[in-house]
TrEMBL record:
The protein, known as: Uncharacterized protein LOC106457788
Database matches in PANTHER family: CHITIN DEACETYLASE-LIKE 9, ISOFORM A (PTHR45985:SF8), PTHR45985
Keyword Signal: yes
CDD domains to which the protein is assigned, alphabetical: CE4_CDA_like_2
Keywords: Signal
Signal peptide as annotated in the record: 1-19
Protein's organism: Limulus polyphemus (Atlantic horseshoe crab)
Length: 381
């Protein structure tokens, strides 16, 4: 498994990049969306649906799939629409079982790219050139498409490993490869009230927590900001510090009981729900569930959300559909999707020689490629 710790603590120079002022008379939905910490299109807060975006990063395999199954394929539904809840997966290649990725996709979860190599070096990602980013992102989309049997056009989101982009190099590649959104950019300054997703027609509009940040404009390309979480730390009796983090599982100290976990998630949710209802990110790694109490707290929180008739747990892609075309709660009609037929005939492939240290297995849909797919040979020829 990935050393989660690396994912969680990259970071942290803070300075502000000011994008050009977004001109609302020129920037019109659905193709152009200005950044806002207010309400979209003058919606009253109480009339705004509250979207919740559950995401999971890294390899998908038999270790973590049972938790995804329990969460997403167990009859949980949004109260108002009666549609099944869905999540978004940022998938990296090594140790991924593509027949399980197909299952997640079949249940209408959103499958996105999190690189091929997930190399544990922020310097690598920061300094990678255009060709490397194209291979890591475009190549991973090809791998998912071929081995999980998912149309390439259905894979539209990106999260950079360790949230480390190379600024404009990475954003230029995402845009030119026709990805639709990035969700790698944390914001602390725009966490209260939280920042809504926006397009980069007028550039990057938030604090730069992990340098470099993009400086150019990218037409109709969305940033789904990683609005920071805060964890209350008692430093002296009655005195608290708010510890910020980009992903929900990175805030320390880790909650250790069901109740503590529930309260932590709920407090962060309320900052969205009671202010402007910007889509609420619940971004983490399944390893956070290794403590069974914490897992219970997460599930309790999800089930608590599902008792609210103005809350919708959806993929990032579906939340962005709303951001492009916002409407009051009473007019919003979520269209339910039923699971697709499986088109995956799975095979277990084994490779004694790989470009990595040692042998690897790979379960995929269709025939096994001759070689273990990797950078510069994504089809495994
Ligand atoms: Zn990762």
């Amino acid at each position: 498994m990935r050393p989660v710790i690396f994912c969680l603590f990259s970071a942290v120079l803070i300075y502000t990049v000011t994008g050009k002022f977004c001109d609302e008379s020129q920037c019109k939905r659905p193709s152009c969306v200005c950044d806002t910490q207010g309400s979209p299109e003058g919606l009253r807060v109480e009339d705004t649906p509250q979207f919740v975006m559950l995401t999971f990063d890294d390899a998908v395999n038999v270790v973590n799939f049972p938790d995804y199954e329990e969460l997403l394929m167990n009859g949980r539904k949004n109260l108002r629409s009666n549609c099944p809840i869905q999540a978004t997966f940022f998938v990296s290649h090594e140790y991924t079982d593509y027949s399980l990725v197909h299952e997640l996709w079949r249940y209408n979860n959103d499958i996105c790219v999190h690189s091929i190599s997930h190399l544990p070096s922020t310097e690598y990602w920061k300094n990678a050139n255009q060709t490397i980013w194209e291979e890591e992102l475009g190549g991973m989309r090809k791998i998912i498409s071929k081995f999980a049997n998912i149309p390439e056009s259905d894979i539209v989101g990106v999260r950079a490993p360790f949230l480390q982009t190379a600024g404009d190099v990475t954003f230029g590649v995402m845009k030119s490869l026709d990805f639709h959104y990035d969700s790698s950019m944390p914001t602390r300054q725009k966490a209260n009230p939280p920042l809504w997703p926006y397009t980069m027609d007028y550039g990057y509009q938030q604090d730069c927590q992990i340098t470099p940040c993009p400086t150019k404009n990218y037409k109709s390309f969305f940033i789904v900001p990683m609005v920071n979480y805060f964890r209350k730390l008692e430093i002296a009796p009655g005195h608290f510090l708010d510890i910020p983090c980009a992903m929900a599982d990175a805030c320390l100290p880790l909650p250790e009981t069901e109740d503590e976990t529930f309260q932590y998630l709920r407090e962060n949710f309320e900052r969205h729900y009671s202010t402007n209802r910007a889509p609420f990110p619940l971004f983490l790694h399944q390893a956070w569930f290794s403590n069974p109490e914490r897992k219970k707290g997460y599930f309790k929180f999800v089930d608590w959300l599902l008792q609210k008739d103005d809350v919708f747990i959806v993929t990032i892609r579906e939340a962005l559909e709303f951001v492009r075309n916002p409407q009051p709660l009473d007019n919003y009609k979520q269209v339910c999707k039923s699971p697709k037929q499986s088109t995956c005939v799975s095979n277990q492939c084994t490779y004694s020689k790989t470009p990595l240290n040692g042998p690897r297995n790979m379960k995929c849909c269709g025939t096994c490629p001759a070689n273990y797919p990797w950078l510069w040979n994504v089809e495994g020829n």
